[in-house]
Amino acid sequence: MEYYFSDKMKALKPSAIREIFKSLGDPEMISFAAGNPSPRSFPVEELSRIGADIFANASTAALQYSVTEGYPPLRSEVEKRMREKFNIGREGDMTIITSGGQQGIELSCKALCNEGDVVICEDPTFIGALNAFRSCGAKTVGLPLGDDGIEAESLDKLLTETPNAKIVYLIPTFQNPAGICTSLEKRKAVYDVCVKHGIIIIEDNPYGELRFAGEDIPTIKSMDTEGIVLYSSSFSKILSAGMRVGYMCGPEPIIQKMVVAKQSEDVHTNIFFQMLTHRFMTECDLDGHIQGIRGLYRDKCSLMLSTLDRVMPECVKYTRPQGGLFLWLTLPEEIKMIDFVQRALENKVAVVPGNTFLCDTAGAINAVRLNYSTPSDEDIVRGCEILGRVAREMLA
Amino acid sequence: MEYYFSDKMKALKPSAIREIFKSLGDPEMISFAAGNPSPRSFPVEELSRIGADIFANASTAALQYSVTEGYPPLRSEVEKRMREKFNIGREGDMTIITSGGQQGIELSCKALCNEGDVVICEDPTFIGALNAFRSCGAKTVGLPLGDDGIEAESLDKLLTETPNAKIVYLIPTFQNPAGICTSLEKRKAVYDVCVKHGIIIIEDNPYGELRFAGEDIPTIKSMDTEGIVLYSSSFSKILSAGMRVGYMCGPEPIIQKMVVAKQSEDVHTNIFFQMLTHRFMTECDLDGHIQGIRGLYRDKCSLMLSTLDRVMPECVKYTRPQGGLFLWLTLPEEIKMIDFVQRALENKVAVVPGNTFLCDTAGAINAVRLNYSTPSDEDIVRGCEILGRVAREMLA
């Protein structure tokens, strides 16, 4: 039997990161390749205690079918937190609970894009979002990501030239993979351009709460007087990634369409963990818990940066993140990125090749992504030392 | 701001059942409308005990990101059970864990169908599957469901006339909504026709283990020497619906494409409940537990049938299921289905209008679906008595 697949699947390749993740069976491998939160960020004791209580006192609701838009008390609590912390949520907005932030991105594209429609992305950007757009048959077009975001003028021009553009996808805060923040000025300019063109923005903000240096910058969604921004976030980086609980807040007509689409995808998100998340938010000290994670990542990021400062040749450049999970390391011309990745792997350090994150993966980008949240302190030091040695050898 | 949606979303309407489910706030309403398993089918004590143990001894793995295709020990255990119990799984097959059976259906259509391609369905059929196909931009075409399945000859003719048909979707065992089983003879004939046309069958079997009368009939997948059958099932009806753990077994090239598509939808299924399901399967008496559920549904179905026998006018016909959750009640010409549903609602009994389950919901079908797994015994009796009174009044 010969099997035939849909055209949209042909545009889709397994995420290089997930593939690397799978091949990390080698216990000697130091992985800077994952995007995993530190296991120390999971509040196991509280989750365990509340989980036991849900089994004891609310098992029927926790194990039975539930409503697609999400567990109502969790939706309310998420809305309250977004409003109070981030000035997010205006008259006419609605929130849906999704199976991880990933699902919100995919559902919004499914709701908004026909096959062949265009999603404009920062280049480089989150591979999971790129694949979600491709899986809906949309085309991804990239705008170069500068040190503080994309250029509003370039976006204006691109939108004028691309009448079938339907979404602008942005990660303004601690961008994945680059680790940078878009400045307030650029956020405003980009928002204004999108209002002018009447185009929807997806503001993806899974790392926003993980700031360990500098000052918070208002989200684009907080400026959204016109109702054009879908705001996506999740509990993956602050409670548990494996539970798959995320959310999206945006204009009610769009969220309602996403509810209908979600119904056909998974009916609803695991209800036990929706209840658990709600109880943690209302009974435990979520802010205090997040404060602890920030300290943890501040230390890990500092350790990675100070080690790189010590071992890397000067011609190797890297971002100095103020939050999030990643830094972005740019190699000099003399070092070919793909050879560097290969040599690093041979020396038991896994990093993600930068072209993975491009709209056009055949594009040239002489950079790699490093993650500091997952590896142990010892591995951070040892891994960076190995990368430094590899770089120096390749320059010699 | 005016919002525009993708064409495929226009074909999609909120499931009437989910909508009715939502409006069931009225505590006096007796619902025969849901498809919920009985809460008594959840093995709360064991799940609670194992859950506590996972939190205590395997919390990192249970709360961290995991692999997309599913928790490997669960996949193995599911494969073993399918092989031993149902003779399912041949050389070249692979199993993916999905977020409920629903996701497997949606992912397979996404992998196989371009927009405008056709999925052939039993008419009536499961609304969740119809919407999944529509959400992928596929068209659904129905073949009338007889007392023992669709006609192989009609399928042969339809496939010949429909070159862009990509999937035949069937629920051969305790069909939803009709409650009937396709005979072995027809299963074989339908399989042979599909082999002849080289078309993929989705065999959806969420209720197969819930037989409480009669003899098991071999699944179509068990005959699948040619590698054309995707077999879908889940733990929703035997452990917990709210946890969203299902699976699909089929030819590896197709399942691999589904893994890639799943990566962009939700990365992976809630890992804690995958581990919980695996531990239940290996440490507890799953077969014994299912035996208990069968007894429960046998009693509930008998009670509904005996009450209907007592209260319904003879011209009202209904199926006598040997398993599953539903029976299908056909009204005489004198009673207009939609008026019957309305009058029943006014009298505080919710049933699902039969046209909900048609490929073309504008089609005429003078029948409704009744569920006996969710309501209490008392409500079964009282609800049927009300339906009987409504029917007699409408005939008078």
Description of the molecule:
2 copies of one chain form a homodimer. Chain A has about 400 residues and is of the alpha/beta class. Chain A is built from 14 helices and 13 strands. Chain A has helices spanning about 5-10, 15-20, 45-55, 60-65, 70-85, 100-110, 125-135, 150-160, 185-195, 250-265, 270-285, 285-310, 335-345, 375-395, and strands at about 30, 95-100, 120-125, 140-145, 165-170, 200-205, 230-235, 245-250, 315-320, 325-330, 350, 350-355, 365-370. In chain A, β9 (about 315-320) and β10 (about 325-330) form a beta hairpin. In chain A, α3 packs across α11 (about 270-285). The interface between A and B is large, with 88 and 88 residues.
Secondary structure layout:
Two copies of one chain form a homodimer.
Chain A (H helix, E strand, L loop, with lengths): L6 H4 L5 H7 L7 E2 L12 H14 L1 H5 L8 H15 L6 E6 L2 H12 L5 E6 L3 H9 L3 E6 L7 H10 L3 E6 L13 H14 L2 E5 L24 E6 L11 E6 H15 L4 H13 L2 H26 L5 E2 L7 E5 L6 H10 L2 E2 L1 E2 L13 E5 L5 H19 L1
Parallel strand pairs in A: 1-11, 3-4, 3-5, 5-6, 6-7
Antiparallel strand pairs in A: 2-8, 7-8, 9-10, 10-13, 12-13
Largest interface: A-B, 88 and 88 residues
Continuous helix count of chain A = 14
N/C terminus separation of chain A: 53 Å
- How would you classify the quaternary structure? homodimer
| Overall pLDDT score of chain A | 94
Helix/strand structural class of chain A: alpha/beta
- H/E series of chain A: HHEHHHEHEHEHEHEEEHHHEEHEEEH
Shape of chain A: globular
Q: Percent of residues of chain A in beta strands?
A: 5-15%
Question: Number of DSSP strands of chain A?
Answer: 13
Helix content of chain A: 40-55%
Low-confidence region ranges of chain A: none
Largest sheet of chain A: 7 strands, mixed
Major sheet strand order of chain A: 2-8-7-6-5-3-4
What Rg of chain A is obtained from the alpha carbons, in whole angstroms? 21 Å
